[in-house]
Write a sequence for this structure.
DNA sequence: TGACAATAAGTGTCATAACACTTATAATTC
DNA sequence: GAATTATAAGTGTTATGACACTTATTGTCA
């Protein structure tokens, strides 16, 4: 095995490829930012998954959305949306009712309380975004968003 | 409340600031990439936190590292490192022993088995990085890494 | 039309992450 | 040198996420 030479290379050149460096940076920065978000959402009694559900449902409008649709739109893969929605329904943030026409479906709707909570989060979230990204210029932020979008648009 | 006009603006202009756009993109892309990593590590019986611990310990060399040191170097904030290390010790990937000179300390070392596992993961991880980032040029990846690093270097 | 496939949602179970709290040991200071 | 503070690690409990499996309802087609 004797990996001494390889290890020396690793120490002076910590990344073996631009892709490795990008992946590591993305993991680190992504966690930093999402941890900050988690802390903020927690002040309002939400997990970040719950916050995203609220945003998704607000965007969906009065028709609501089914469980699988919500799951697919969530940022993170999340197998247990049913109970997530149940907890949110208990908290009064969403409402679920079985569709009488297609009794398989149980669309979920955001409630006025859920909308109000989103409104309440709005301003501190903007402040957090300024705190996290305010030292970058709009051009830099635009470039960052472009590159991140490009990463997701893999052929 | 009547947020109709504001909502219309939101629909046509989904992001209210470059910072909001960057944060959302970072969250989405970060999750995409770390989910892919999670799936890979799971094939080897590891969580991504465990993989990072192994990397940290390999980098630390023969002196090992204490629990708090490991916790601070981890990508994600992680309050429960003790039991994480316990599980890894049970799996034979690390070894812990209380320092006789300072009996508060229980430095943790990577074992040959842990090193071998890291080696085994190496090649599929490189392949994954190519799959995730191969469609970007080295210049684009370099720029992405720079910007992500800059985000973390907030004053 | 009756069997079978497809779709939507839900459940049981387990391991783990989160959080607050506690113990053990060493260093400091009066 | 006794009391106090600091440091390192560990523990108890709870809620949640992960995974595989199941149920309920509708659509399809032989």
């Amino acid at each position: 095995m004797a990996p001494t030479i390889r290890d020396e290379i690793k120490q002076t050149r910590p990344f073996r490829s631009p892709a490795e460096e990008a992946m590591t940076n993305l993991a680190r920065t992504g966690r930093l930012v999402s941890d900050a978000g988690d802390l903020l959402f927690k002040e309002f009694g939400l997990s970040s998954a719950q916050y995203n559900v609220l945003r998704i449902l607000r965007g969906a409008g009065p028709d609501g959305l089914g469980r699988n649709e919500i799951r697919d739109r969530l940022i993170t893969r999340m197998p247990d949306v049913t109970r997530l929605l149940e907890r949110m329904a208990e908290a009064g943030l969403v409402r679920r009712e079985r569709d009488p026409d297609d009794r398989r479906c149980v669309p979920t709707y955001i409630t006025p309380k859920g909308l109000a909570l989103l409104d309440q989060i709005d301003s501190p979230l903007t402040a957090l975004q300024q705190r996290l990204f305010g030292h970058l210029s709009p051009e830099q932020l635009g470039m960052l968003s472009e590159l991140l979008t490009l990463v997701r648009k893999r052929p």
DSSP finds seven helices and two strands in chain A. Residues 1-12 of chain A have pLDDT under 50 and may be disordered. The helical segments of chain A are 4-12, 18-43, 48-60, 67-73, 81-90, 112-133, 138-152. Residues 48-132 of chain A form a domain with the Arc Repressor Mutant, subunit A fold (CATH 1.10.10.10).
